[in-house]
Every structure is written in C-alpha cells, then in structure tokens.
Amino acid sequence: MLRCRDIGQLLHDYVEGDLGPGTAQELEAHLADCPGCLGFVNTYRQTVAVAHELRCDDIPPELQDKLQNFLARKRQARGPWARLRARLGGLWRRDRLP
Amino acid sequence: MRGESPEAKRASAEDPDGALVRRLQAGNEAAVETLIARYQRRVFGLALRLTGSREDAEEVAQDVFWKVVDGASSFRGEAALSTWIYRITTNTALMRLRKRPKTPPLPFDEALGPAMTEEGTIAEAVPDWSRLASAELERKELAERLETAVQELPPDYRAVVVLRDVQGLSADEAREILDISLPSLKSRLHRGRLFLRKRLGEYLLPRIAASERRGGHDA
Fold it and tell me: Are B120 and A3 contacting, i.e. CB atoms less than 8 angstroms apart?
C-alpha cells in the first residue's frame, strides 16, 4: 500500500513512464483515493507541459548574418598558417569520423 | 553541391551532419553557412533559456559557432555533432553564468512538494491548478512566469530542466551533454520541476482566488 510520501518519490519515474506496470497501477490506485496526491501529480505534469512551451522559435532575423560576419572576421584574423593547420588536422582525422 | 560524386551525395543524404563535419574540416566556406543555418535556432534557444538574456545568448552563439568551426578538425565523431554542439553551448553559457551572483541552493525535495505528516500522508490541501492554468490564464503569461522561475534555478539544475523539458532532449542525450550520471540527472530534473511547480502555484493560486471572489460578487 503506497503512502503519499512514496508518491513524491515515484513521481518522476511515473511521469516519465519509467515505472513498472505493477507499481504504476498501485500509484494510480492511490491517486484515485487521494485528491491531494492527484493535485500534486496533475500540477507537476502541467509544469512540464508549460516548460515545453518555452522552446524558443523567434531567433533574431539578423542572427545568421551576424554569425557569418563574426566567423569570417575570426577566420581572417587567424592567419593563413593556422587555417592550413586546421585543414591538415581535418584530413588527418577524417577516417575517425562517423 | 557542384562536382560531388554520387557516393559523396549518398553519404551526405544518409548522414548530413557527418558530411557537414567533413566539409568543415576541409575548410569549405559554404559549410559554415550550412552549419549556422542548421544549428542557430537550437544554439540560440538553449543559450537564451540558460542565460535569460537575448544579448548574452547572441554572444554565446558567436562563441559556440567559432569553437565548432575552429575545433572541427579535432572532432572525432565519438558523439553526434548535435550532442557536441549542445555541450559546447551549455558549457559556454554556464561559464557566463559563473560571473553572475550565485543563486541560492534548492531546498530538499519534501520542502518543495506538499507538507507531509510523520506517517507520510499529505498534511495540507493541494489545490489542483492544472486545468485552471489552461482555461483561465493566458498561456503566454504563464510561460513568462515559468521563464522567470527557470532563471531562479541554480545553473546545474537549470541546465537539466532546459535540456530535458524545454529543448525536449532524451535523458540519455542530456546526460551525455552534461557528462553526469543518470541518477544525478533524474534527481536534478525532479527537484528543478518541483521548484518550478511551486513557483507557478505561488503565482496562480492568488489569481485564481481573486477571480473566484470576483465571480462570487458578480453572481
């Protein structure tokens, strides 16, 4: 018989779907009888759902140009020998890539 | 690409990131453009959620892409390119956070969840604001409140929550990026979520109570 304290300890694995079916059933049986734990689980799930909505979709429109200009300046400043060394390093390690 | 053999084209289609790395290692200028186009959203988004500042996120993105381009020759392909880039982004953003005043540590799990009796049962009413959160409040407003709360998390917790719950990476990917064990990852994620849940509740409950009082007067 699970207690409320056990629910708190199992909550992460339950929400992630990592609990075994037996334990998950026991947990759900507890939730059916315990409005406090049900509220706890529902609000925990809702927190995760709101966090998903924070994913950033509005990048600055000029970011690509800024980054390209920045990298071009850095590569220019690095000088020809360093550029050559970087290229040779790439050739040397090419066989170890996926 | 011009002059590419059919084999190279097939390899590029089957493993676009592998082909991109090889082009970067060969010093191909166009590959830099492809790299930025493919990863700028992920890099900027992660940096923004970790630093909480668009200005810092842009600077982090610059540092990250430079480290990737400059270090491409030493990339051995032991991890996916995306994992490597996420790791560089996380570390670069966390380095930046170290220069800021420290955030207070999180309390223990049980202090973040509902109060318990000695027998291990819930000792207080736990209002279920989950449905009200979608129905009565602008979702955007709620997300803004959560964003503020994410910035209150200590950096180690913030990184886990952002990678898993905001960026939607798997536990294995996040563990590999942060170079921590799975139990550590789970523990930080759980406590981070408990903290955010607490903050959302603190924000929502007074508003819901006020809305109910207004509803009562109107009736």
Answer: yes
How far apart are the C-alpha atoms of B108 and B122, rounded to whole Å? 16
Q: Which residue from B minimizes the CA distance to A50?
A: B143
ipTM above 0.90, yes or no: no
**Which B residues in the span 83-142 are in contact with A, Cβ-Cβ below 8 Å?**
109-110, 113-114, 116, 119-122, 124-131, 133-134, 139, 142
Which residues contact residue B84 at a Cβ distance below 8 angstroms, ignoring those fewer than 6 apart? Answer: B68, B75
- The C-alpha atoms of residue B214 and residue B73 are separated, in whole angstroms, by 64
Answer whether A74 sits within 8 Å of B129, measured CB to CB.
no
SS3 helix, strand, coil % of chain B, rounded to 5?
Answer: 75, 0, 25
pTM over 0.90: no
Q: How far apart are CA B18 and CA B128, in angstroms?
A: 48
Residue numbers in A near B92 (CB within 8 A): none
CB A91 within 8 A of CB B25: yes
